């Protein structure tokens, strides 16, 4: 592991988060917010580790604006983005209430406090089920439910979801936390506490580099390998590079099994969802890289 690059990726994410907090307002264009975040990351010397997720209300995750997106910020907005420095990643998220609602604020507090309590508990060799238990108890203590089928995750070089999963509930399994890089990300809702797959997100990941006949698709595939490797990317980025003809190329690559497209994740009872996330380096000491 390259600790220096991991810390830098975290520091950039932290600076970007403070930059975003100032300009995110109700009715701001999601497309503009995403582009400002992604330009700031580059300005600070990093690259996006995945497309900026800007998910509103019952969409828990995996909404990224399309190249011509007209959606405006509203409700509970979850701002989730990541930075990488030569493949070493950070992943952070926070939620904002854009309708001045006590209920929203309470839900946001639930996920934030759960994240804080979980981080305080972290050390090498604790049971990941106990981390989940703390998250669960904190969220339930705020009168909400943790989203049980979303979880934190280990991260490795050019790999956002590697190895170990950090649950948001007690699982009772005998799995211990080892040294490594982890994203801890509690989600809270007043509804069912579960998500299901929604519409296609326009967020993709390379899964197979096998050859494809179409010229445009082939160019996209080559660009994806060079520019994103195994990290997620989105149709908006590809359209920026190749124009809208790339949308057909992406479809061909998905159909042929070169790319996986992620679905949006929607709360099953259509209740609003809040999220808080930090990246934590677990070693002889615990370092929250994105704080
Ligand atoms: Mn995230
Ligand atoms: Mn994450």
> Which value, in Å, is the CA radius of gyration?
18 Å
Distinct ligands, ions and cofactors found in the model: manganese (II) ion
The succession of helices and strands, N to C, reads HHEEEEHHEEEEEEHEHHEEEE
What portion of the residues fall into strands of 2 or more residues?
Answer: 25-35%
Number of strands: 15
The appropriate CATH architecture of the largest domain is Alpha-Beta Complex
- Supply the CATH class of the largest domain: Alpha Beta
- Helix proportion range: 25-40%
How many angstroms separate the termini? 20 Å
Output the CATH topology of the largest domain: Creatine Amidinohydrolase
Count of runs of 4 or more consecutive helical residues: 7
Assign the CATH superfamily of the largest domain: Creatinase/methionine aminopeptidase superfamily
Number of domains: 2
Average pLDDT level: 98
Q: Structural class of the helices, strands and pairings?
A: alpha+beta
Low confidence ranges: none
Task: Report on the architecture of this protein.
By secondary structure, the protein is α+β, with helices and mostly antiparallel strands. The protein contains seven helices and 15 strands. The protein folds into two domains: 3-197 and 266-288, Creatinase/methionine aminopeptidase superfamily (Creatine Amidinohydrolase), CATH 3.90.230; 201-264, Arc Repressor Mutant, subunit A. Helices cover 34% and strands 31% of the residues. A hairpin with a 3-residue loop joins β14 (278-282) and β15. α1 (3-23) runs antiparallel to α2 (30-43), α3 runs antiparallel to α4 (128-141) and α5 (215-227) packs across α7 (246-255). The longest helix is centred in the first third of the chain and has 21 residues, at 3-23. The radius of gyration is 18 Å and the shape is globular. The chain starts with a helix and ends with a strand. One manganese (II) ion binds next to loops. The site of one manganese (II) ion (MN) has 5 residues, from β4.
